[in-house]
Amino acid sequence: MTQFSPVLPVVDQHHLDRQLYPHGVAFMDGQYLPMSEAKISVLDWGFLHSDATYDTAHVWNGRFFRLDLHLDRFLGGVERLRMKLPYDREEIISILNGCVALSGHRSAYVEMICTRGSSPTFSRDPRQAENRFIAFAVPFGSVANKEQLERGLHVAISETVRIPPKSVDPAIKNYHWLDLVKGLFDAYEAGAETALILDTNGHIAEGPGFNVFIVKGRSLKTPAFGVLPGITRRTVFDLCAEIGLSVTPGNVERDEIRDADEVFITSTAGGIMPVTRIDAATIATGYVGPITRHLMDLYWQKHEDPSWSSGIIYP
Ligand code: PLP
């Protein structure tokens, strides 16, 4: 029988931290910490049961992009999950600013999380749990890398069905990702770079961390049912209104996506990202289309506009 040895192997903690954690600053239990020190109990329901909601905003060139919309979605989710935060909206803004400012990052991925927490008596009643707020800022990350942004992503449609909205409300941003991760593995097996999965009616839903749009002529369409109402998706609606393109939320069939003139995905992690191949077929010419390019340009321009973005005060 293997004997448990109370003598633990010596680890070079500093080396391990550098391998496991990106440079960044977190906030939890009332204080700012280096990323490597931000740890939660394994008894937290957020970890044990995915009983949590979160939101991810980004900072570009020292400015938050549409932080108010991210806060609205986050605070709405917290309320609907019957959680209570120890901080109000203004305090959360100040904490998020603090994480970014202390990290020194000019471009950052900024997450705010509320977990159910755990109960001091280990009660199974979620009402007894003490909810926990965590925030952090790490370097900006993207679904698509530079090469993929230039030539367009290769996406596979997986047969995996997204968890039904009647089970988990997709408007509450959540960590129920087993379906999305299964879709990703299906995509890798098919030789693609990422996945789209289906809604409960067999239409296209969304992918691991992004929404999807198709373009036909001067009209755009994006799935309406069973998807997270993404802030980048919403931004595409706003940009289309500005430049006179029509955009409709509705059912998107598999054939429709293959037959589109252009396809792109949207996420805070990367913005508007072109797709030029679905399964074995190229989309139209196989090159990034003009409407996608135009929207990508406008999207990044808006990051400098004070009515769409707010500056960080660095120390
Ligand atoms: N869909 C899912 C499942 C997501 O997790 C995300 C973002 O993480 C999105 C869509 C895109 O949302 P947003 O544009 O707000 O980043």
Structure notes:
This protein has 315 residues and is an alpha+beta fold. The protein folds into two domains: 19-139, Aminotransferase class 4, branched-chain amino acid transferase, N-terminal domain (D-amino Acid Aminotransferase, Chain A, domain 1); 146-303, D-amino Acid Aminotransferase, subunit A, domain 2 (D-amino Acid Aminotransferase, Chain A, domain 2, Alpha-Beta Barrel), CATH 3.20.10. The chain has helices at residues 13-20, 45-49, 67-80, 89-103, 146-151, 178-189, 231-243, 254-258, 290-301, and strands spanning 25-28, 31-34, 52-60, 63-65, 108-118, 130-139, 153-161, 194-198, 211-216, 219-223, 246-250, 262-267, 271-278, 281-282, 309-311. Strands 7, 8, 9, 10, 11, 12, 13 and 14 form an eight-stranded mixed beta sheet that branches. It has a seven-stranded antiparallel beta sheet with strand order 2-1-6-5-3-4-15. The longest helix has 15 residues, at 89-103. The radius of gyration is 21 Å and the shape is globular. The termini are far apart. The mean pLDDT is 95. Bound molecules: pyridoxal-5'-phosphate (PLP). Pyridoxal-5'-phosphate is lined by residues 56, 206, 209-211, 228, 230-233, 266-268.
Topology diagram in text:
Blueprint: H1 13-20, E1 25-28, E2 31-34, H2 45-49, E3 52-60, E4 63-65, H3 67-80, H4 89-103, E5 108-118, E6 130-139, H5 146-151, E7 153-161, H6 178-189, E8 194-198, E9 211-216, E10 219-223, H7 231-243, E11 246-250, H8 254-258, E12 262-267, E13 271-278, E14 281-282, H9 290-301, E15 309-311
Parallel strand pairs: 7-8, 7-13, 10-11
Antiparallel strand pairs: 1-2, 1-6, 3-4, 3-5, 4-15, 5-6, 9-10, 9-12, 12-13, 13-14
